[in-house]
């Protein structure tokens, strides 16, 4: 046990690859900042990938990434060996929960419905992709079949709107972005500048914002 307390004496960020999360975690919980940094770096890519799965009107993806890192820090702080799940499972749960909580809080503060929060959790194409398209999420578990039906109808509506209001370029950019491509990769794929790609994604956000604002007024929010 004493060895794990002095974790930083015999391991650094480079050679910590083979050290288990649990060993690094115990050191981090004992105040070892290097161990904490190792854990944060290990899960940073997961946080970024998870953030890509969420879209909040009026917010930048980096904001959601930051929330995910806060969730990761809370996981390090709160995890204990008595928990039935591994740290990895617990950390992923905390990261996701923190992101969703931040989104729900933001929508309440702006007095907009939670359907302004779009999660990219639906297959883009049923036949050739396990990637996801935009799916409205209520932010809570739906137990009423009627509520579930309404949510499904709303999902179909927003998919139709996306197809109607986006240009071919905007649709291509959105699909590539959803599939995890970076701005640089999308620009290379489409033979465009990174600025052009950024502008296209900003137009997508604005168009969705206008649609959701109109829907908000129609729904009496």
UniProtKB/TrEMBL annotation:
Pfam families, per database record: Sigma70_r2, Sigma70_r4_2
All copies of domain HTH luxR-type, residue ranges: 180-207
InterPro entries: RNA_pol_sigma-70_dom (IPR014284), RNA_pol_sigma-H (IPR014218), RNA_pol_sigma-H_factor (IPR016371), RNA_pol_sigma70 (IPR000943), RNA_pol_sigma70_r2 (IPR007627), RNA_pol_sigma70_r4_t2 (IPR013249), RNA_pol_sigma_r2 (IPR013325), RNA_pol_sigma_r3/r4-like (IPR013324)
Keywords linked to the UniProt accession: DNA-binding, Sigma factor, Transcription, Transcription regulation
Record-linked SUPFAM superfamilies: Sigma2 domain of RNA polymerase sigma factors, Sigma3 and sigma4 domains of RNA polymerase sigma factors
Residue stretches spanning the membrane: none
GO molecular function: DNA binding; sigma factor activity
GO biological process: DNA-templated transcription initiation
Residues annotated as domain RNA polymerase sigma-70: 63-76
NCBIfam families the record matches: PRK08295.1-2, PRK08295.1-4, PRK08295.1-5, sigma70-ECF, spore_sigH
PANTHER family the UniProt entry points to: RNA POLYMERASE SIGMA-H FACTOR, SIGMA FACTOR F FLAGELLAR
Protein name: RNA polymerase, sigma 30 subunit, SigH
Lineage of the organism: Bacteria, Bacillati, Bacillota, Clostridia, Peptostreptococcales
């Amino acid at each position: 046990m004493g060895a794990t307390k002095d974790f930083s004496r015999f391991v650094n960020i480079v050679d910590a690859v083979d050290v288990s999360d649990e060993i690094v975690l115990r050191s981090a919980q004992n105040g070892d900042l290097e161990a904490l940094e190792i854990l944060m770096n290990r899960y940073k890519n997961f946080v970024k990938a998870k953030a890509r799965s969420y879209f909040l009107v009026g917010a930048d993806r980096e904001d959601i990434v930051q929330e995910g890192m806060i969730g990761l820090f809370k996981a390090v702080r709160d995890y204990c060996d008595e928990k039935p799940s591994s740290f990895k499972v617990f950390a992923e749960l905390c990261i996701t929960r923190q992101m969703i909580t931040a989104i729900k809080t933001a929508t309440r503060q702006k007095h907009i419905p939670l359907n302004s929060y779009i999660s990219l959790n639906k297959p883009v194409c049923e036949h050739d992709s396990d990637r996801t398209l935009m799916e409205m999420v209520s932010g809570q578990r739906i137990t009423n079949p009627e509520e579930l039906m309404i949510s499904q109808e709303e999902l179909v509506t927003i998919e139709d709107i996306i197809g109607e209001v986006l240009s071919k370029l905007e649709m291509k950019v959105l699909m590539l972005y959803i599939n995890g491509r970076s701005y640089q990769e999308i620009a290379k794929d489409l033979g465009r500048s990174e600025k052009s790609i950024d502008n296209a994604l900003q137009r997508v956000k604005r168009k969705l914002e206008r649609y959701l604002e109109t829907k908000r007024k129609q729904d009496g929010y």
